Amino acid sequence: MKTTIFNLLTSILLVSWQPLGFAQNNPLADGNAAAPDEWLLVKKGNPWWYETKPSPTPSQLQKRTPTAAEQAIIERARALVANRPAKAFVLMDGDTVLYSETKAPADVDSVFFGFSMGKTVTAMAVGQAICAGKFKLETRASEVVPELNSKALGNATVRDLLRMASGAADPNPDSSVWTPDQFKEWGRGNLNLVNLVTEDRIAKAARGVFSDYKPGEVTSYKSTDPILLGIMVGRATGTPWSQWIQEQILNPMGAAKSGLYVQDRQQNGLADSGMRLRLEDWMRFAVWVKRSSREQGCFGDYVRTALSTQISNGSNPSTRKMGKLFAGYGYFTWTENSIAPNSAWASGWGGQRIGWNTDPANNRMVITFSNVESWMPEVYELAKDWNRLSR
User: Fold this and answer.
1) Beta strand segments in the chain, E
2) Per residue in 6-39, pLDDT tens?
3) What's the CA gap between 192 and 28, in Å, rounded?
4) How far is Cα 316 from Cα 128, in angstroms, rounded to an integer?
């Protein structure tokens, strides 16, 4: 019964929050990317989704009294929460939470859907697989997913995929790649993600002005690349993707609560967006990424690379498909924000954000969850000033 109600709500939202027609599956509100509460705050998923578990060693988040300079920015954040479509706002200095607020119906027990912040989660999980020797950045997709033999997508390397540079077809303006009929089948649990990303419509090369794009040639933000990497990790490790996420992300970051990870019935993870966590565990993920970026060794090197520009997002903001305020892209993470310098961002549809200061000596972080994306420039302005603070 719960699944039926959930799917009914999804169908209603597809009609009321977005224009009808092909090639748009994510909700919109007045032309802006939107995340209505019925999407953002779902606590119970379909029965075939994975329910994440707390880490055997949950990490502790700290608190302290803000400085006067910090308090001034906290007051600005409070005003944004009160007057913008925010659902949560967090300001951190390392593992210390200086400010955390939710707005009804969200609360501390809400399970927040990260949307495409899940891509950054995927980037970290891929890094763990690389550092475990399961494959390399140079490994081609067809080496792990033979269904892609003789298809253009099969020529993309792990590094190409991490940079959204597979060269494969890019069918939808909202970065999704399924058709409306496939989206309905997904909601019913009838879509296999391997079949989706290996079908000719998706796996063929995208056409440039004069010729087909080659892997690594240009970044094009879409769901194909992260979903395929999730499948590759599952096959290369012999471990269901959700289990890999549990063991290599949630456990080491010290998750304290349960959450949800979206997957199909065959346990192929929706690696472009599948992570749903309570707010405090999104904080723990942010802290773990920052801490990892300061470590020596394979994974530390990988995270530093992931949070730095690996490919250009184009020189003209008006022609960028996604990330109009970002000139660069790392590994499933946005870089070169035009408002907040020296920052890297996990970014999700509708205004879900984690912002990291990329200065190794500065641990400032900003986290937001939102119903509508339109006010993100104000978040970046606040992040710029938060990142400038020193203790």
Assistant:
1) 28-29, 32-33, 50-52, 62-63, 86-93, 96-102, 111-113, 259-261, 275-278, 311-312, 326-329, 334-337, 343-348, 352-357, 364-370
2) 343 443 333 333 332 334 578 999 999 999 999 9
3) 26
4) 34
Number of other CB atoms surrounding residue 99 within 10 Å:
20
Cβ–Cβ under 8 Å, residues 346 and 354: yes
| Whole-prediction pTM | 0.93
Q: What is the pLDDT of residues 254-269, one digit of tens each?
A: 999 999 999 999 999 9
Q: How many distinct structural domains can be found in the chain?
A: 1
Question: Which tokens hold the place of 338?
Answer: 């035009």
Distance CA 39, CA 344 (A): 25
Domain that holds residue 178: 2-388
Separation between Cα atoms, residue 14 and residue 143, nearest integer Å: 37
d(CA 345, CA 14): 27
The domain that holds 96 is classified in CATH as 3.40.710.10
Q: Classify burial at 82, counting beta carbons within 10 Å of its beta carbon; exposed 0-12, middle 13-18, buried 19 or more.
A: exposed
Contact 196, 177 (CB under 8 A): yes
Amino acid identity, residue 218?
A: V
Element (H, E) at 88: strand 86-93
